[in-house]
Amino acid sequence: MSAPKSSLPNKPIASERVRSADLPVAWIMMLGLMVAVGPLSIDMYLPALPSMADDFGVSTAFMANSVPAYFVGLVFGQLFYGPFSDRVGRVKPLYMGMTLYVIASVICATTNNEYVLFVGRTMQALGACVGAVVTRAAIRDRLTAKQTAKAFSIMILVMGLAPILAPSLGALFLQFFNWHSIFWFLAAFGLLNLLLTKFFFFETLTEENRNVRPAREVLSQYWDLLKDPSFNYPAIGGGLLMGAMFVYISSASELIMDTYGVSATHFGWLFGMNAAGFVGLTQLNQWLTNRFRILSILRFGAMMQVLSAGTLFFVGIFLGTDAWLPLVLACIFFCIAGLGLTQPNASAIALAFQKQRAGMASALQGSLMFSVGIFGGLLLNLFPLNPVLKMGIALFVLMSLGAFLIWQIDRNLDLDDAE
């Protein structure tokens, strides 16, 4: 694997933009920075939820509903940007989405009404999700299946710094400013993404590979994708595994800060440790893909997650909130860290055989993840169980279902056929 000669790529002619022989590391890292707007927007304000709840005169649990509100925007936004980017290319959707994100961040920064905040958060997500859709599709446009798995690992190295640093950065902002400042920072980060798009992101989807089917057939194309076994098993299975992480994000503040009394600063450190485990295993995944089949690594990671979630489930049943906090955190750590072995590989397999609909495939995969996060997070609030058991049930059920679907992928699937 060789790095590009310059720190950022030049804009090559169309024939050179697709399926390059070398891995364009600097370009991939730039894409990771674009995608980082998503986890920054989700995680940076989590330490502020208790203070926001005080300002609005509501409970922390009620204010935590702003997380599922964000996921709603992610689901529907991705379903729009996917087919749109397959039709017009990858650049125009980035401009649209990031402009909307900046406007929504300003709304969140200036409001003093909790319902306006919820609407602003949904708008934020409608803008931010374009980064995830377009970057995954652009990587698929340009790289082979094995390169794609490695590229996702490199991209996560960059974007993974966001969930590691975001809670601590949010807590730091709260020490010197109020929670409004967090959203001003996010607006500035959105402007940075617009600048990166303008000066360094080139079009990866050539004219001949664009989807020219009528727009009215979008729903039928999504349905065709869901019926494709080369897509549905890795995409839905990986979506359930990743969606479980968003359930954890929705309830982390209540569990760690409210139940165990951890401060906002220490919460940021603990949250960052889980993200660090995730990023660390994605980098190990680069090494593993040179030595083992992608499907084998994916299955190992899924089993790691199921076993960890099962342990948390039994801890919740027998100990509840009397459980030793380090034990609870250890179970959560391995659940989240295991994503480093499942997400790059599930995404690579799901996108491998999608050429003219890579944007749609990327969008549907992402929407599945966040749909799990929405419904899982809302279901957590319906059951009067202790927070440890609620999280244990949610993670164990979702990860077990995800692992089951991963095991349905044809073990003889040859990704070289997709090249």
Can you characterise this structure?
The chain has 419 residues and is an all-alpha fold. It contains 18 helices and no strands. The chain has helices at 25-35, 37-43, 49-56, 60-63, 66-88, 91-110, 114-142, 145-159, 161-176, 180-200, 218-227, 229-259, 264-289, 294-318, 325-337, 339-352, 358-380, 387-406. The model is unreliable at 1-20 (pLDDT under 50).
Shape: globular
Count every helix, treating DSSP H or I runs of 4 or more residues as helices.
18
Helix content: over 70%
Radius of gyration: 20 Å
Low-confidence stretches: 1-20
Mean pLDDT: 81
SSE string: HHHHHHHHHHHHHHHHHH
Question: What can be said about this structure in brief?
Answer:
The chain is an all-alpha fold. 75% of the residues lie in helices and 0% in strands. It has helices at 25-35, 37-43, 49-56, 60-63, 66-88, 91-110, 114-142, 145-159, 161-176, 180-200, 218-227, 229-259, 264-289, 294-318, 325-337, 339-352, 358-380, 387-406.
Blueprint of the fold:
Layout: H1 25-35, H2 37-43, H3 49-56, H4 60-63, H5 66-88, H6 91-110, H7 114-142, H8 145-159, H9 161-176, H10 180-200, H11 218-227, H12 229-259, H13 264-289, H14 294-318, H15 325-337, H16 339-352, H17 358-380, H18 387-406
Task: Name a few traits of the molecule.
disordered N terminus, mainly alpha
